[in-house]
Amino acid sequence: MLSTALSVLLALALLALDQGVKWYIAVTLPLGESRPLLPGIVELRTVHNYGAAWSSFSGMRWLLVIATSCIVLGVLVVLLRRVVRHPLGVLAGCLVISGGLGNILDRVRLGYVIDMFNFQFMNYPVFNVADICIVGGCVLGLVYYQWFEKYDRKENANGNADAPSHGS
Question: What tens digit of pLDDT does each residue of 73-83 get?
């Protein structure tokens, strides 16, 4: 339970960080302008993204809200039903939920997502804290699925779904 509680607290803190950074960028850096963050590596650049990654589905605000909401709800159900109990899997799910909620809030409230981190050394879409959470959660989810999911599957098969496991 402790690792689950810590994962939830981390997810809430990252959601707050995402919204705080977006607010800061919106009030201090005019749209389209940039300033160095780590010179030569990352700059801050205000972008209004009306789509998803690489501006895919641009202008399909409500489709993106619905699709992202379905993913967030699906991951939440998996966590609440304790299908995933290993701390790495729980953390991965919490990160995906946190990032998804951060971008949903923008799309519903503003009609677009505020992005601000721009790699200067490569051609890559401008992104935000929520995107970092989503990508990080997906990577951790793949690691969990590849190496740790078998422990949760074994516990579910033994009928120990409600028993604490892995120090959680």
Answer: 999 999 999 99
